[in-house]
Amino acid sequence: MRLGPAVLEARSLTVSYGETRAVDAVDLALRPGSRTAIMGPSGSGKSTLVHALAGVVRPDAGEVWFEDERLDQLSEAERSRRRLSRMGMVFQFGDLVPELTVVENVMLPLQVLGEKARPARARALEMLDALGVADLADRRTGTVSGGQVQRAAVARSLVHGPSVVLADEPTGALDSLTAEQVLDTMVAVTSAAGAALVVVTHDHVVASHLDDLVVVRDGRVAEAAVA
Ligand SMILES: Nc1ncnc2c1ncn2[C@@H]1O[C@H](COP(=O)(O)OP(=O)(O)OP(=O)(O)O)[C@@H](O)[C@H]1O
């Protein structure tokens, strides 16, 4: 059992889209250094849960606490600022800026934090190298493959040393060997920083790289196994 306070916590979190209750009274506490897989059937609410934890989606009810602050009570601009500076996100369908190069996309979180271009580029290149895509650094993101975009998105989620990394199917477009390498990099970088890592996945091999498992069904936590 891990002691100490959670860095990110959902309390009775509920998110609805019209009549659909996508997340239904979920309690989830993510501690620094924890590694959690979120699994469950398609449509069970995994993405919505992660988006609410990140403050992208605002809950109808319940609370999201991030670094001792009520994230859900902040303005959109404040939530966005917290997310960009202190969280790393990998979205299911990627959200890199296609007009920017791969390395420019990875530099963005550092530049939001005020880092100068030269050190930001050097750090971004290191992270791209760790993910095996440094050779694509100067290609526009719109011209590289889905799996390469996914690896660049993972690099961007880790580059600024966030306290939480939330990744929605970060390896869905990758072959199994590359997927395991990407997972290992995510685990290594977050462990070194004492960050919490959350990965939504349908893949049991991916989940086996993580310590804790949360199974979501019909918007609820059906099972939770915490190491
Ligand atoms: N923007 C939206 N508008 C309306 N309904 C939505 C929206 N996003 C998700 N839903 C609904 O909310 C429920 C949960 O969806 P969500 O995408 O969170 O599930 P998921 O477990 O991540 O699915 P998958 O594994 O297929 O990605 C589903 O019933 C879905 O149809």
TrEMBL record:
PROSITE patterns: ABC_TRANSPORTER_2. The keyword ATP-binding applies. Keywords: ATP-binding, Nucleotide-binding, Transport. One of its GO terms (molecular function) is ATP binding. InterPro entries: AAA+_ATPase, ABC_transporter-like_ATP-bd, ABC_transpr_LolD-like, MacB-like_ATP-bd, P-loop_NTPase. The keyword Metal-binding does not apply. Residues 8-227 form the ABC transporter domain. PANTHER family: ABC TRANSPORTER RELATED, IMPORT ATP-BINDING PROTEIN. This is ABC transporter ATP-binding protein.
